[in-house]
Amino acid sequence: MDNKNNNRSSGCKRKNHVLDEVDTNRQPVNDIHNVIKSKKLKRSKENISSKENFPNDLTPSSSRFSSTYENITPLPNLNFADSVEVWNIMLKCDNSYKRDSNLFNRHVSLQPTMRATLLDWLNEVCQAYSLTRQTYYLALDFFDRFLSIQKDCPKKNLQLIGITCLFIAAKIEEIFPPKRNRFSFVCDGACSDKEIFDMELVIMNTLEWNLRPITPIAWLSAFFKVYTFSEKENTNNKSRQQVNESFLIPDYESELFVHVAHLIDLCTLDAGSLTFQYSVIAASAFYHFTDEDVVLHCTGKTLNELQSCVEWMVPFAIAIKNVGLSFLKDLNNEKSMIQTHTISLELLHNAQTIQADIEAEKLTIFESSEASSLCPMTPSKMASMPPTPPRSTGTS
After folding, report:
1. Which domains does the chain have, with CATH numbers?
2. Widest Cα–Cα separation across the chain
3. Is the pTM of this model over 0.70?
């Protein structure tokens, strides 16, 4: 058994390499003007993931729901609990587990690229030991909240903190969690069993033993349950029938779930994700693969709540679109809830490059508009102005 585990984890075995920089090879970005225009979220019901700009493999066919919602919870009428109370508890939990979006200001020796590299490696470890998506996202939450509380963590301890967070998460979530020595093994001597044991207590005390957040993947699973139930039962009306405990059993399209989870995996590597609540991250990723009505019905969110996150996610969705989803051919229903290493630092860098290009494009358009408004009737200025960028056409 040990030999088998050794072989499986050899690919993710890494000494203290979390300080590596993200690969800086730039990838070409196609049709940036059109993408910016098509992906800008409007208050009118314009679909951000329209089929004109995203192929069918990124936009599943789904039924439309009414945009008038009288219920204060998207959950169906449960016969084993008060759905409104359950929903309010979920929202309260989402508000109480906070991360600091400026946590790197607390640690002078740490950089966002180090966090991304560590999380990418933890993805590999999860795949090597067949750990669930929930285990990975628990570890991510523990790691971010720990750094949000502590100050000046030395970079040499970053891998120890990360692997210990994964060890704690596995003990909470997995039926048969790997032994502690399996986690020290993948560190290739950088972290000992005793160091993991000692760090475990430090982390849990720092977090005050608050170890049950509703992670982005847990929110996504909840949204998918509502989505699937609504499509099957067509219950978006005033008189909803009661639902039993079978609602809690995942029974949704695994391929679509993996699509959205893949986008969340990539987005959460970026430190910008620390700005948003987990429910907003999950709902925004869901938006990119469905449409406005579906998201409003299944998530209980408003466009005002999602707008900034949906727009922030656009470069990551474009990066995924550019490389495709060929990895799905190796996945089946049983593996949809296992954390697989389908993202990479290169893909993250591509997304961040697109993000920088979009920001530069916005700045260029703003400066051009500002200059023309100062002297709009000056012939020399008008003659020298470049053609109107595609993004500035149409209504805003």
Report:
1. 2-18+98-206 (1.10.472.10), 32-95+214-355 (1.10.472.10)
2. 79
3. yes
